[in-house]
Amino acid sequence: MARRKLVAGNWKMNGSRAALAELDAIASAAEAAPNVDVAVAVPFTLIAPAADRAPGLAIGAEDVHEADSGAHTGCVSAAMVQEAGARFTIVGHSERRADQGETSQDAWAKAAAAHRQGLNVILCCGETEAERNAGRAERVVQAQIEKSVPDNADGSWFTLAYEPRWAIGTGRTPTVDEVASIHAIARAKLRMLIGDAADGVRILYGGSVTGENAAVLLAVENVDGALVGGASLTAAKFVPIIEAAAGL
Ligand code: PEP
Fold first, then answer.
1. Three-class SS of residue 131?
2. How many CB atoms lie within 10 A of CB 161?
3. Cα–Cα distance between 147 and 172 in angstroms, integer?
4. Which of 98, 118, 199, 223 could be joined to 1 by an S-S link, Cβ 3.0–4.6 Å?
5. Is position 133 annotated in a ligand binding site?
6. 3-state class of 246 per DSSP?
7. How far lies 89's CA from each of 79, 81, 118, in Å?
8. Per-residue pLDDT tens for 42-96?
9. Residue 129 CB-density burial (10 A; 0-12 exposed, 13-18 middle, 19+ buried)
10. Could you tell me the distance, in angstroms and rounded to a whole number, from the CA of residue 210 to the centre of ligand 1?
11. Sign of CA dihedral 102, 104, 106, 110
12. pTM greater than 0.85
C-alpha cells in the first residue's frame, strides 16, 4: 500500500518565540512538497504562537498527560494542547522514558487520551545500545509495540516511530539493513495487533536524520518518513529532509 511520507520535527526543550521565524521557510518547503506531510512538535509554550504563525503546518505537542483533566500539577492534557492549536502529539519518546521513567503502558494511555481529543499520535519505540549489542533489538521493539499500540490504531490518526535510542542526537544511524529489518518486524507486529489497518500506519525512522542521509533512509522499505530532532531546529537543516522525502 502506498503511504504518504511524513517528515516530523521534534524541537524538544529548545526554541523561543524568535525561533518561530524558522517555521516560515519550513512552511514554504512544505507547500512546495505536496506529496509529503510535514509536522513540527514544539514545547507547550510555543504551540499557540507556532500554530498562528504557520497555519499550513501541522504543529504538535511533544507529550500529553494520560488523564483528560484533574489534579496533576505541572502536567498538560491532550484537550489543552488541542485547544492551543496542536494537531498531533508525540508519546513515548525515549527521552521521556529515560528522564521521566515512562513505560510502554504510559505511552498506550497517552495515545488513547490524545485520540479521545482528536489529536493524531506519533508513538515512539526503540532499543538501547546495550539491548542491540545483546541481540535483543527486535524483541524489545516488538514488546514495546505490543504494550503501547491501542487496539483501535489506524493510519488515519496513528503513526509509529522507530527510534533506536543510541542513534538519537549522536550522529550515528543503523545500517540500511538494520532499519529495514526492524521496520519489517514492526509492520508484522502491527499486523498481528490491528490486522489490515497495519498497512495504512506510517512507520517513521528517527535518530540522527540529516539532509545528507535522509534520501537513503527514506528509501528503505517500510520507512514512511522521519522523526527529526536536532536537524528540525533550523529551516536550513530541516528543509533538505523535506525535499529528500518529496523526491522519492
Ligand atoms: C528525536 O529526538 O526524536 C530525534 C530523532 O533526535 P535527533 O534527530 O537529534 O537524533
1. helix
2. 28
3. 27
4. 199
5. no
6. helix
7. 11, 9, 10
8. 999 999 999 999 999 999 999 999 999 999 999 999 999 999 999 999 999 999 9
9. middle
10. 10
11. positive
12. yes
Ligand 1 atom closest to Cα of 232? 8
Segment 62-76, tens digit of pLDDT: 999 999 999 999 999
- Residues marked active site are found at 93, 163
Residues 110, 65 contacting (CB under 8 angstroms): yes
- Going from the Cα of 71 to the center of ligand 1, the distance in angstroms, rounded, reads 31
Please give the Cα distance from 110 to 115 (Å, whole number): 9
- Name the residue of 96, 170, 228, 237 whose CB sits within 8 Å of the most ligand 1 atoms, as the mutation to test its pocket: 228
Who lines ligand 1 at CB under 6 A?
A: 10, 163, 168-169, 206-209, 227-231
207 assigned ligand-binding residue: no
**Which amino acid does the sequence have at 42?**
V
Could you tell me the three cell numbers for 233? 531546529
Q: What is the length of the chain?
A: 248
Distance 37 CA to ligand 1 centre (A): 18
**Is residue 12 a known part of a binding site?**
yes
